[in-house]
Every structure is written in C-alpha cells, then in structure tokens.
Amino acid sequence: MQYLRKTLITVASLGLLAAATAHEFKAGNLEIHHPWARATPAGTKTGAVYFKLINSGTEADALIDASAPELAASAEVHNHVNDNGVMRMRKVDKVDIPAKGSALLAPGGYHLMLMGLKQPLTEGQKLPLTLRFQRAGEVKVEVKVESLTADPTSMHAGH
Fold this sequence. Notes:
mainly beta; eleven-stranded mixed β-sheet; 1 helix; 11 strands; 13% helix; globular
C-alpha cells in the first residue's frame, strides 16, 4: 500500500512538472507550442526562436511577421536553404500552415531570427514576442530561454 501511494505521488508530481514546463498559446484554430530560444553568449547580437504551429481549422494560415521590441531591434522569419551545396539562412515572406496540418520552426529549418539583441538571452528567462498570422492576426506569446546546448528534438515531444 505504501509503495502504491509513493508511486501515485510521483506520477502526480511528474504531471504537474510537465504542465509547469510546457507552455502553449492559442489564436482561433492555431496553437503555438512551446516557443523557445537558446541562451546566447555575452556580446552576441542575434538569436533564434523556435516553436511548433498546429492548425486545427479548415483554412490554411501563415506566419508572416514577428516583433519583440523589448528584446531586439527586429525579428524576421528565416529559413535555411541549400545554395549549391552550402547551407545559408534566408529571410522568407511567410511560413505556410496548412489546414488540419502543422509547421515546425526548428534549428536547421524555419525559425524567427532576432537581430540587434538588446541583451544576451539567459537560460530561464521568459521573454515577450508578438507573432502575426495572415488569418489569425496578432498573438502574444512568451518565449522560454533554454540552455545553450538545448536538444531541439525534446522541445516538441508529445505534440
């Protein structure tokens, strides 16, 4: 009986911990899962933000812009592209989010580039960011700054 009680307490605690560390935002039919950034070393003037977008609606949408005036001079939607065998970062006009589909902003692919950082991104910080969508409009989210060595594959587990 004691073992069962300890097991139940452990399971409940893990559930609360998962709920406390996960953070999601919603705008109409769009869900924004766990916006995060890696910490940056002192003196770094750029950073990147990643998250997963899920569209449960019957119409496509697109991420078209972002802003974080408290964090950086500008925020742009970027993608990594193969340019004759060399991976380069390029600004893009939008990230399409298909109806009943999803889009992932992750290292090595689409991401939000923060340029002209006003201060380094420090592990544990929670920072404001405004996303702009073609259909859903503006959505304010909170970006969680993870460690410099954060594993991107673990950021969206279970989503």
